[in-house]
Amino acid sequence: MAGLREAARYNKRAFALWWRLDPQIFLSAASSCAVRAAAPYIGMYFTARLIDELAGGRDPAVLLRLTLALLLASAAAGLAGALCGRWKEAVQAGRDYVMAKNYFEKLLHMDFRDVDDPEIHGLYALIRQNANWAGWGLPRVQEQFENLITALTRITGSVALSVGLFTSRVRPDSGLAWLNHPLSLAVMLLILLTAAVLSPALYNRGQAYWARSGEAARLGNRIFSFYTYAAIRERGRGLDIRTYRQDRLFDRKYEENIDTGFTEKSEMAGYARGPMGLYKAASEAVSRLFTGCVYLFACLKAYGGAFGVGAVTQYIAAVTALAGGVAKCLQALGDMGNNGEYLKPVFRFLDTPNRMYQGSLTTEKRSDRRYSIEFEDVSFRYPGSEAYALRHVNMRFTVGRRLAVVGQNGSGKTTFIKLLCRLYDPTEGRILLNGIDIRKYRYDEYLDLFSVVFQDFKLLALPLGQNVAAAVDYDRERAARCLELAGFGERLEKMPEGLETCLYKDFDKGGVEISGGEAQKIALARALYKDAPFIVLDEPTAALDPVAEAEVYSSFNSILGDKTAVYISHRLSSCRFCDEILVFDGGGIVQQGNHDALLAEEGKYRELWNAQAQYYSDRT
Ligand code: ADP
């Protein structure tokens, strides 16, 4: 019972969510389903009258009137159904986008620590898999709403057209007078109710097997789509697969997971052959048996003179449809119950709270860019992690200076940048902007202070200029200048359509493929275009060839202008021009100073320098 109540609550929330996203989804579906479900009853009614007239009075005027009425009413219902159907289809064409955007918005505004959290990733993947699998989750809510409206319309139409079957009385002298007895009516109604409940109950029992193998099927779905589509399609993987013949591993993985779905040996296929198939067959049998009883009842009553032949056709059709309507209604309700399980993760995801404190102070837009940032005894642990990724970090940024952050892998450099950009809040200590805790500023305004080129930056399959400016309308001269500063000038000149050239071929046949180094230059230009007072570069030249790297470094000072620059680099030789170097080791700053001073003292910097000097002897 608790499960049902919970499912009802989730369905109600899902309905309210869809309604908020686009009420037309329900309005168009309701009108289209109602009109379409009601249409057959018009035919049922007039056909019965026509048959009665043909079997009885045979008055041409009446026949003509009835035929015309049938034609007009059917045409009107058909037209209304088609119009509403068009409306519904037009609205539904945009439905997936509306739903995707809803999730997308949530991901966009979620605390970054949650976006980074594998559990949230898992939840989101689960929601998408459920929806792709058989529309479970939000899509099902609409589907069941449509079924419910169709069912309710059918029930209403059927009741209206079948009342006479029970109320008309047979002639007392017909020998069938017992049919008028309330008991026979009660028996007939009982049969009707039993069939209406039993048939869908059996059907739902069968359907429940879908949910039962949900877990296995989800895994199967993931394995199936990864090994048959995703892995082969991904740019980088294609080469690996061929070089290492990874396809053999795929086959193996697929065979190992054979019982998870997509083969005739799977659990689901077993259910379909076994209990699930049997339940569905039993449901069908009950429904047919019931139809037989209705035929018998209606024919006997007609034989006893209760009504004419036309009415027999109407009653049989209406009662059969009534049972169908009740069955459909119960099926829809049962399915909504099953769907409750799938709506749970949807709302767990959408209810992820924003725990990060959102301040209200504005970061004053200083034209002199005199912003100072200070780390005050900052320590940090990733959520769910025991170990500290940063420990007792104290440092101060001097405006307009070039700051390098160096250290071995895992020493905490990226974490330091993530805290600086407030993707995470420190576990202990504070970060101050102009003397005030950064948590007190408006988050979006604080982020505006930074241009960051992360190591795993991504460009979009859009025109080059839009990539640089992150906007559709932009200052073309400035975009071109930034690209030139980033060392992309010559390549830009060779681009077939200049700034309008599309990157990659995903959406444009004339798009250009770019190398890793070129992409890095574009990402750098994008950071310059943003023109934020702080520019943060994570391995800004990792993908550049030595010539391009040397060019970028020699012009770094002019490129960066009056910005405060922080950059992370593995190549110590490239830090030499920096005013200050922070040396990270084991999550803390172990040394700080300029290149010459650091080299002069015993310590990590010299150790790293000497290790690299062997390979870069020409630069030492
Ligand atoms: P670097 O950039 O110097 O290579 P990081 O800042 O990425 O180092 O990592 C510092 C430490 O934090 C490492 O021990 C790493 O394993 C850990 N770490 C990094 N990212 C996460 C994360 N998302 N969750 C848990 N631990 C992490």
Count of helices?
24
Q: According to CATH, what is the topology of the largest domain?
A: ABC transporter transmembrane region fold
Bound molecules: adenosine-5'-diphosphate
Q: What's the CATH C level of the largest domain?
A: Mainly Alpha
Mind telling me the C-alpha Rg? Answer: 36 Å
Quaternary structure type: single chain
Helix share bin: 55-70%
Supply the CATH superfamily name of the largest domain.
Answer: ABC transporter type 1, transmembrane domain
For the termini, the CA-CA separation is 76 Å
What would you say the CATH architecture of the largest domain is? Answer: Up-down Bundle
Spatial ordering of strands, largest sheet: 6-7-8-3-9-10
Beta-strand percentage range: 5-15%
Give the low-confidence spans.
none
Tally of distinct domains: 4
Characterization of the model:
- The protein is elongated.
- It has 24 helices and 10 strands.
- Helix 7 (138-167) packs antiparallel against helix 14 (309-350), helix 12 runs parallel beside helix 13 and helix 13 (275-303) packs antiparallel against helix 14.
- The chain has a 6-stranded mixed beta sheet with strand order 6-7-8-3-9-10, sandwiched between helices. A 4-stranded antiparallel beta sheet has the order 2-1-4-5, with helices on one face.
- It has 4 domains: 4-213 and 266-350, ABC transporter type 1, transmembrane domain (ABC transporter transmembrane region fold, Up-down Bundle); 216-258, no CATH class; 363-449 and 532-620, P-loop containing nucleotide triphosphate hydrolases (Rossmann fold); 459-529, 3-Layer(aba) Sandwich (Rossmann fold), CATH 3.40.50.
- The termini are far apart.
- With 620 residues, it is α/β, with parallel strands linked by helices.
- Adenosine-5'-diphosphate (ADP) binds next to helix 15.
